[in-house]
């Protein structure tokens, strides 16, 4: 497949997300655990960066538990490959994970991250769509979609995704800066 057709397919997939954040025919979003709901409330209501960082770390740990040692190992291997800059190897592990555990949102999120590193924005957006279908409160997936829309010069969609992530994660300075940068382009006037 040529780079041009891969880029075209990536852009088409990413643009198809402008319709919404749901996957046709996907099962309804699974409700969060009592613990993750508590941590989301702590994160959104944190008084400062220290409290927000603590709640976020705990939440990420909670979301990283698949309930299967084998799936947790695939997630670890995929993340480890990303850490040592081997995104192709990460994609292999994480694709196996999502094939065997399609209802595990964190597997899809890590796969999206690997695709994004490889500049495969269409597959990354597709994986992020799965994350949000399974966990609509996944601020990392919302921020990832914002980054893709931002890269594709779709300021209104980028602003919307970043703003949704900021509702969950209000202490993130990068999100705040991205929203402020896009305010004029997304709304059409100076604030």
From TrEMBL:
- Identify the Pfam families for this entry: TPR_16
Query: Which ranges does the UniProt record give for the TPR repeats?
Result: 105-138, 139-172
Query: Which PROSITE patterns does this UniProt record tie to the protein?
Result: TPR
Which keywords appear in this protein's UniProt record, sorted alphabetically?
Answer: TPR repeat
Q: Any idea what this protein is called?
A: Uncharacterized protein
Gene source species: Roseivivax halodurans JCM 10272
């Amino acid at each position: 497949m040529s780079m041009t057709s891969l880029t075209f397919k990536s852009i088409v997939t990413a643009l198809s997300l402008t319709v919404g954040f749901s996957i046709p025919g996907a099962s309804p979003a699974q409700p969060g655990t009592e613990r993750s709901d508590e941590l989301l409330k702590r994160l959104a209501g944190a008084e400062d960066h220290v409290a927000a960082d603590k709640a976020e770390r705990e939440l990420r740990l909670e979301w990283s538990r698949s309930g299967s040692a084998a799936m947790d190992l695939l997630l670890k291997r995929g993340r480890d490959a990303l850490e040592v800059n081997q995104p192709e190897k990460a994609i292999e592990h994480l694709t196996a994970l999502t094939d065997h555990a399609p209802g595990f949102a964190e597997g899809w999120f890590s796969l999206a991250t690997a695709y994004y590193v490889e500049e495969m924005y269409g597959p990354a957006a597709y994986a992020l769509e799965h994350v949000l279908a399974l966990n609509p409160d996944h601020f990392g997936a919302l921020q990832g979609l914002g980054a893709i829309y931002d890269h594709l010069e779709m300021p209104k969609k980028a602003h919307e995704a970043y703003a949704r992530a900021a509702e969950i994660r209000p202490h993130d300075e990068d999100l705040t800066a991205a929203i402020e940068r896009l305010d004029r382009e997304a709304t059409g006037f100076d604030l």
